[in-house]
Amino acid sequence: MKASNVSVIEIHAPPSGAICDFCSGRPVVFTYEAQDFETVESVMQSVGAWAACAECAKLVDDRNIEGLLDRVLAAPLFARMVRDAPGEHQSMLREKLKEDYYAFFLSKGAKTPYEENAKL
Ligand SMILES: [Zn+2]
Question: From the CA of 9, how far away is ligand 1's center (Å)?
């Protein structure tokens, strides 16, 4: 096989590829600018904007952090972690997420409609 026959397959995320930075759901409809930050307890490093689905964006706009935690912890990604974790770890997970979200709320900037080609 000649080298010229080797084709480079470019992988593009489908339009629905972006996921919500909170619940991991789709579609993403808004992004929030955010100052970069790190959290101590959860050792989370946030760089750049956060993507949000419609439901999470509503909770963010309402500054409903407990509602956001309820929603995120019930989402498939976290629901499994919560289900498999011992009791004390479940509340720890919630506390760590809460710290992340508080830091996000403090660093959050403008909300803009999500564009498919936006870099997150
Ligand atoms: Zn979401």
Answer: 31
Q: Is residue 1 part of a domain?
A: no
Q: What is the pTM of this model?
A: 0.78
* Rounded CA separation 90/51 (Å): 25
- How many domains are there within the chain? 1
* pLDDT (tens digit per residue) in 49-102: 999 999 999 999 999 999 999 999 999 888 888 888 887 888 888 999 999 999
What are the Cα distances from residue 113, in Å, to 28, 73, 83? 9, 25, 34
What is the 35 CA–ligand 1 centroid distance (Å)?
A: 20
Range of the domain at 42: 15-111
Query: Is the residue at 32 inside a domain?
Result: yes
Give residue 10 CA to ligand 1 midpoint distance, Å.
28
